[in-house]
Automatic annotation (TrEMBL):
It is found in: Mitochondrion membrane. It comes from the Eukaryota. This is MCUR1 regulator. The gene is Mcur1. PANTHER family: MITOCHONDRIAL CALCIUM UNIPORTER REGULATOR 1 (PTHR14360:SF11), PROTEIN FMP32, MITOCHONDRIAL (PTHR14360).
Length: 199
């Protein structure tokens, strides 16, 4: 639509305010040209309601397609994460079972060693009850030294087994923390992708 106004009335108004007829007509014609040029520029950038509705429908259909793709991607990503989590749970259960088996084995070995030491001590007590010759005292001392060595070796074995178990548990903990951190970052990436698409 074009904007029309009474040019003659504007010319008369300008003449009443001191302009000549020729000046008034030149001013009005310049105003009309400027207004027409401005309106042409405005109408070039404008769209009709039908065009706007078509563009809106296209955008909405595109958004719907993106939503469907994101839902499919989300389901596949989360199903993959769930399966990975299940695998990790199974591995952790197996590791826990192995650790418990190792602990029971170490305990059984320690009990056996302690029982052996108890029996040796009882033997020593029995030897001390009887009259001891100088030679048997040397044997008792050697026996004590052997017992001390056996006890220290047993303690060392226990310490090394416990240290090995602790290092194994720590390594598995670190692996699980790394995997969980990767899973969290993956979820955050998917969420940020959703967020950017919605905005």
């Amino acid at each position: 639509r074009r904007l029309y106004f009474d040019t003659h009335a504007l010319v008369c108004l300008l003449e009443e305010n001191g302009f000549t007829t020729q000046q008034s007509e030149v001013i009005v014609s310049a105003l009309v040209k400027i207004m027409n040029t401005n309106l042409d520029m405005i109408y070039k950038d404008m769209v009709t309601k039908v065009q706007q509705e078509i563009a809106l429908q296209q955008v909405m259909s595109h958004i719907g397609g993106v939503k469907k793709d994101m839902i499919i991607l989300e389901k596949s990503e989360f199903s993959a994460l769930r399966s990975e989590n299940e695998k990790i749970k199974l591995e952790l259960q197996q590791i826990k079972k192995q650790v418990m088996d190792e602990i029971t084995k170490v305990r059984a070995d320690n009990k056996l060693n302690l029982n052996l030491e108890k029996s040796r001590v009882k033997e020593l007590i029995e030897i001390r009850r009887h009259p001891v010759l100088p030679v048997s005292r040397l044997l008792v001392k050697e026996h004590h030294a052997q017992q001390d060595r056996a006890l220290t070796q047993t303690d060392r074995k226990i310490d090394t087994e416990v240290a090995d178990l602790k290092t194994m548990l720590e390594s598995h903990k670190l692996d699980n923390i790394k995997y969980l951190a990767g899973s969290v970052f993956t979820c955050l990436t998917v969420a940020l992708g959703f967020y950017r698409l919605w905005i």
